[in-house]
Amino acid sequence: MAEKEKETKILRVRNIYDDMENMQTAAEILAGGGLVAFPTETVYGLGANALDERAVAAIFRAKGRPQDNPLIVHVCDLDMIGPLVAEVPEAAIELAGRFWPGPLTMIFRKSDAVPAVTSGGLDTVAIRFPSHMVARELIRRADVPIAAPSANLSGSPSPTTAQHCIHDLMGRVDAIVDSGSCGVGVESTVISLAGEKPRVLRPGGVTVEQLREALGDVEVDPAVCAPLADGVQAASPGMKYKHYAPRAHVVILRGGREAFAAYVNAHRDGKTYAMCFEEDVPALGVPYVVYGGERDDASQAAHLFSALREMDELGAETVYAHCPARTGVGLAVYNRLLRAAAFEVIEL
Ligand code: AMP
Ligand code: MG
Question: Which residues are registered as beta bridge partners of 126?
Fold first, then answer.
């Protein structure tokens, strides 16, 4: 991993009108081949010019990211997509009409303009049109497509505030745009349109239910809810790495409120924490961090990653996380939690 050697500028942007100077500084760094962490509606991204091999290579070094894990290319209007892709399938037009700008990434067959380092050596490219105004304005001013993985150190929970980016990337990147916290809280849904059938590779803010309503038949990759079997090639290379994990040992408990409380309360040692729903709190006899309402998948998504980071700040050694429902955005929450827990689930 690269040494901490850069002087990282913190650029506060409350909105794109009042902080135009900071926006311009960030855009010029991007246009000049530098690295800038910036907010999107999902999580903070670590951006670089997607067409500049050296700039993109620097993203991998700053994050300590494996080279074969491809990046998502962010655009600020549909016209930017043509030069990046070999073809635009009908399904993409349908999905763009419904869900862009927004938390949906589509995978296309790529054109030669996209360097291999950006696509992790694949012949496809992932593209997203974010809705966050700061992200869009930054891309517009930089005037290039922006490759941006999540702005965390590889393996740690994704960043949903500038503070998280500062914690992970201070000294490793040129600038961090600070615009408060992200709304969705988990990364975009990734759907591949490059195969025979549309296939969800990663669940996110746009739900499988919504995608099925738009396209009819949509497959969900088996790697979404299970570890990859030995010898099986990952459709989404990011799925094969340990991910989103705090230092604490995370275990998912699947069961009702009473069973959850009974299990965690049997581990009152001061180092065991519950990561739970608001409704669990009255029955708990161990320290806890709430990550949302039991039936509120949007609030679970918004708080999941900061709750995982908070566990390290509190010095938790073991974290028992109450399993979310696997419907709607809950499927994305479950997918991230499973990886944070290295697939350790206890049925109560
Ligand atoms: P992150 O940038 O951290 O949100 O990770 C991007 C995710 O998108 C990773 O899980 C990648 O594996 C996935 N991804 C990006 N490009 C492609 C592609 N061309 N084919 C399949 N998955 C992709
Ligand atoms: Mg990531």
Answer: 72, 107
